[in-house]
Structure formats: C-alpha cells, structure tokens
Design a protein that fits this description.
With 142 residues, the protein is of the alpha+beta class. It folds into 2 domains: 1-76; 81-138, no CATH class. Helix content is 56%, strand content 13%. It has a 3-stranded antiparallel sheet, with no helix packed on it. Strands 1-2 form a two-stranded antiparallel sheet. 8% of the residues are buried.
C-alpha cells in the first residue's frame, strides 16, 4: 500500500506527461497534414499543366501526321503535260495517266488523239496524244 497523496501526485504526473506527448504528436500530425495538403495542391497544379501539354502535343502530332500524309501523297503522284502519274511500289512510274481533277484513269481512243478523263462528266484533257506517252514518261522525275 502506498501513500495516497503520492499516488495522486504520480497520477497527475502521468496524466500531465501523457497530455504533453499527445499534444506534441497532434502538432506533428497537423504539420504532416499541412505538408500533404501543399503537396496535393502542387501535384494537382502539375497534373493540370501536364494535361494541357498533352492536349497540345496531341494537336501537334495530328498536324504532323496530316503533313506526312500530304507529303507522302505528293511523292506518290507527279503531274506532267496535264496528267497525273502514280508511282509503283518499286519506285517506277505507272504508265497510266490520271485526271488531275478527279484522279480517274485517262484514255486515248487512238494513238493520235489526246488523252481525256475516263469519267465522261469530267471532260478533262491532257496536252499529249497516245503516241506521245513515252516522251511524257521520260520527263517524270526519277
């Protein structure tokens, strides 16, 4: 059996010590919470900026893909003497002239007649005759 007054003093010391420790722990937790809130705000801001950057990059990518598609199409076709000529897969030129308006194959009813669009509603004519196809082909870029 201890002295009752000492027990009471011991209890007050324990309670007071626990309260200080608890207060310190709560202050630490509050500091950590505040730091986490700041970090969340920074990450949200960075996420928003990155989302905008991503959207801009997507727009640039699409524009570049369109440009590549356009440039590739330009390399597949060449215009000469009022007709288009298409490149074959092996890099040689296809001997069929195409209409520059509708890209329909052009025809020459005879060797001494001008090539015309095969689509009757188009009515486009090339400036060379069937007999001159070889000369026109020689002028195409290599």
């Amino acid at each position: 059996m201890g002295i009752p007054i000492l027990s009471e003093i011991e209890r007050l010391i324990n309670e007071h010590g626990s309260a200080v420790i608890l207060k310190e722990r709560l202050a630490l937790a509050a500091d950590q919470y505040s730091a986490l809130q700041k970090q969340v705000a920074q990450l949200q801001s960075e996420n928003e900026r990155l989302s905008l950057d991503y959207e801009e990059c997507q727009k640039q990518r699409m524009a570049l893909e369109e440009k590549i598609s356009y440039l590739t199409a330009q390399q597949e076709w060449a215009e000469e003497a009022g007709a288009l000529f298409r490149k074959n897969a092996d890099g040689t030129w296809n001997e069929t002239p195409y209409c520059p308006s509708c890209k329909t194959a052009m025809v020459s009813p005879g060797r001494h007649e001008l090539f015309r669009c095969g689509k009757k509603s188009c009515g486009q004519f090339a400036s060379f005759k069937g007999i001159g196809l070889g000369d026109v082909m020689c002028r195409l870029p290599s």
